[in-house]
Amino acid sequence: MPKYISLLRFTEKGAREIKNSTARAAAFDKAAEKAGVRIEAQYWLLGDYDGLLIISADKEEQALQCLAGLLASGNVRSTTMPAFDAKQFAVLTGK
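The structure assignment produced for this chain is given below.
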């Protein structure tokens, strides 16, 4: 199942409402599950990024729609990339 890692940064709105961040994350978990997306991990970070999200989905479209819904809330911006385990990477590199 393809995995995606999203590095999150709070928008000004998200930073103002930081106390509600864990409640928003719980709501996102429910929405993701409904969309067929599995939340592998959610972490809050200190430093250049405010959060880390690891998700998996059977179809890329499911993951993208789920992340688009998260971004539409206006609380975070993301940098998202696919992630590969050793077996997947070996297939990709022909090894």
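Interim note for the steering committee: The chain has a mean pLDDT of 94. The two ends are 20 Å apart (CA to CA).
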